[in-house]
Amino acid sequence: MVAPQLAAIFTKLQTLSTSDHASVVSMNIFVALLCACIVIGHLLEENRWMNESITALIIGLFTGVIILLISGGKSSHLLVFSEDLFFIYLLPPIIFNAGFQVKKKQFFRNFMTIMLFGAVGTLISCTVISLGVINFFKKMDIGSLDIGDFLAIGAMFAATDSVCTLQVLSQDETPLLYSLVFGESVVNDATSVVLFNAIQSFDLTNTNPKIALEFFGNFLYLFLASTVLGVVVGLVSAYIIKTLYFGRHSTDREFALMMLMAYLSYIMAELFYLSGILTVFFCGIVMSHYTWHNVTESSRVTTKHAFATLSFVAETFIFLYVGMDALDIEKWKFVNDSPGTSVAVSAVLIGLVMAGRAAFVFPLSFLSNLAKKSASEKISFREQIIIWWAGLMRGAVSMALAYNQFTRAGHTEVRGNAIMITSTISVVLFSTMVFGLMTKPLIRLVLPHPKATTSMLSDQSTPKSLEAPFLGSGQDSFDESFVGVHRPDSIRALLTTPAHTVHYYWRKFDNAFMRPMFGGRGFVPFVPGSPTERSEHNQPQWQ
């Protein structure tokens, strides 16, 4: 009696051991592929035609083909997609680093335009795409999709991925254009996720004005509450580090506290059913403005490069997986009887994405230009083309939302859902590889002499001769001087120069109340003999 039971237990343990060993083998191969992406991306960096995203996608495709051949057509990827893996572990470092590294002066100087593109523009794009898919998909045989699915499709394909364009543009040569493209891409992702969550939380089968009003109110609540939570957590981290000053004993503690509190902001947002993307983005902005200046010099170097490295590895991981998942037999077997339908769906989606971008970029640029009197602050038609093009590429957020809406535990069980997943993968691959490869020649064609536009696009009031010895270009702050900006003496002046006026009053409030309490440049804690003291004596004073 005992022998058979022992044999069964041994067999189960052996099976578990084999499964664990297979997982270890898969992880080894995947990590090796990540290393290959970094090495090959470095070798292809000189010509700038290729970038890390396209490199990871191509390597993923080739790896998927090899695995498909070895497995006899059973599988093409090493790992099964997990929504938790993406939203809990991969997305937070990407979005936080975007907020932490953003040039805040340019971002907030163009804040209204960025919010106009990122929030209002995303709503317009989502509406255009949703109406388009309702009109076209009902005429196609793609299975049963309800109104919630159509609106979710609009939200997921309204999310952009401007990484290819940002790798070609220069913050120094075209600061206005870079700021608009970068800012819109981050706010766009956050808005898309908030919109997607709002769609999922409502029963949209029976719509009426009351439900529409509740939907809009819920959207605004998620947007504002998420922003406030990120700002609060960032300020708390700055206050704790400034007050206790961990660096006098251990720089590791202050770095660990920054990293954990940044992640805590994201987790708290998910706990309260808010938008973690928006929360962790504004937490990154606040931390770079206050907390980063409260830590020691060594911790500043460590945090900057650590956050950037985590973001880079996470992005490479996502694109590598998307490349392998493009050949997943499980998804394609649902549509092998009508491949033309999947191709048609992909073509319709790409067309609607292009139309949705055009529906808000050019009209909102026109409205934005009406409120600006200075020619250097207006968005030229050439720049509008670049902004439109930058948002045509789709990436990780669209993929994650598609898996969230149309799969269960990484698998598709309905033909319509399988078509949407394969179409989403096709759109991501096509837009990233084709549009990404055409980005550099397009920018060269539209902006043939980027340095000639520097004088127009850059901030005339920012001293060009003052540069930090390190980290300065990525960590500029609100306190950079505004030469020639004076206090407005009338309501008319307030309305004609809103960006400069808001910035003027913010700087006064920041210097009088915020920095004395939460720290920041010029308000770092002083401890005799500390790395911070040496840093403050050695670095040039920007005040």
TrEMBL record:
Segments crossing the lipid bilayer: 22-44, 56-73, 85-102, 114-138, 219-241, 305-324, 344-364, 385-406, 418-438
Bilayer topology term: Multi-pass membrane protein
Phylogenetic placement of the source organism: Eukaryota, Viridiplantae, Streptophyta, Embryophyta, Tracheophyta
NCBIfam families per UniProt: b_cpa1
Pfam families for the chain: Na_H_Exchanger
Source species: Hibiscus trionum
Gene3D superfamilies: 6.10.140.1330
Subcellular location: Membrane
Official protein name in the record: Sodium/hydrogen exchanger
